[in-house]
Design a protein that fits this description.
The protein is an all-alpha fold and 117 residues long. The protein folds into 3 domains: 35 residues, no CATH class; 37 residues; 32 residues, no CATH class. It is built from 5 helices and no strands.
């Protein structure tokens, strides 16, 4: 496959010269002071957004993601609860079934008899 834009690894002389001119602080401390003043002046021109502006850009996407997560969670919880619960045994079934613990049957039977009197 042939690349439509081949990469040239050699340095660009025009860009290199422009960078050297822009970043050359000059000779001595005066040149450095001029360079620092020039960089600070350019930095003052660039306005960085405040933290609340950055969060405001993300708000619409965040609310949409939260709604999507809530809908999916509601669907999954609703689907898990849709399984029919096991039928509860009636009092007769409990009394007639072989007891796992014999004392429990006697307690239930005694409470039923007391409630009927």
């Amino acid at each position: 496959m042939k690349d439509s834009m081949p990469f040239d690894h050699r340095p660009d002389p025009v860009l290199g010269e422009a960078l050297r001119r822009a970043l050359d602080p000059g000779e001595g401390t005066e040149g450095t002071a001029v360079f620092v003043a020039r960089v600070l002046a350019r930095a003052a021109d660039v306005s960085a957004p405040s933290w609340d502006a950055v969060l405001a850009r993300w708000a619409r996407g965040g609310v949409a993601a939260a709604i999507l997560v809530a809908v999916v969670a509601g669907y999954l919880v609703g689907r898990a609860g849709a399984v029919a619960p096991a039928a509860r045994p009636t009092m007769t079934d409990v009394l007639l079934a072989p007891p796992a613990h014999p004392r429990e049957v006697e307690i239930v039977l005694a409470s039923v008899i007391d409630n009927q009197q």
